[in-house]
Write a structure and sequence with these properties.
Layout: H1 2-20, E1 27-32, E2 35-41, H2 44-47, H3 54-66, E3 74-80, H4 84-92, E4 97-102, E5 127-130, H5 134-149
Parallel strand pairs: 3-4, 4-5
Antiparallel strand pairs: 1-2, 1-3
Helix pairs in contact: 1-5
Length: 153
């Protein structure tokens, strides 16, 4: 459990980097064993790229690091439950485990709205651990959107 916490704290750092750039604060860290092989934070606005979600960027970096697209035996730590696109990417990359902080009741595809990562019709299923540093993850998102609306409190 201590390792999970440490890697989720790294994902929170990535999310803070996104917020500093005016991006929705979502961060992800991809780990194999005890080694970080990929990191990412949302860059959709910065890059003008609809695919530049934290999870996708971390998966791409991990694939480059490993020299292939099969990310078997890896764990993705992400501050917000993945959307359908990112959940599909986790399945296709054969990520073993997903650890996320806050649920996404609108677009979450790891159990909240959909459950793509454990769909029996797909060739791979991802183990899910949810709620890791949940309050910190949720508060980062809340404060970002509160500031964006100009409510301040």
């Amino acid at each position: 459990m201590m390792g999970h916490r440490r890697f989720m704290e790294m994902a929170l750092e990535e999310a803070r980097r996104a917020a500093e750039r005016g991006e929705v604060p979502v961060g992800a860290v991809l780990v194999q064993g005890d080694r970080v092989i990929g990191r990412g934070h949302n860059l959709r606005e910065t890059l003008g790229d609809p695919l530049a979600h934290a999870e996708i960027l971390a998966l791409r970096e991990g694939a480059r690091e490993l020299g292939g697209w099969r990310l078997e035996g890896s764990t993705l730590y992400v501050t917000l439950e993945p959307c359908p696109m990112c959940a599909g990417a986790l399945v296709l990359a054969r990520v073993e485990r997903l650890v996320f902080g806050a649920r996404d009741l609108v677009m979450g595809a790891a159990g909240s709205r959909y459950n793509l990562v454990q769909d029996e019709n797909l060739p791979h299923r991802v183990e899910v651990l949810e709620g890791m540093l949940e309050e910190e993850c949720r508060e980062l998102l809340r404060s970002f959107f509160r500031n964006r609306r100009g409510a301040g409190g």
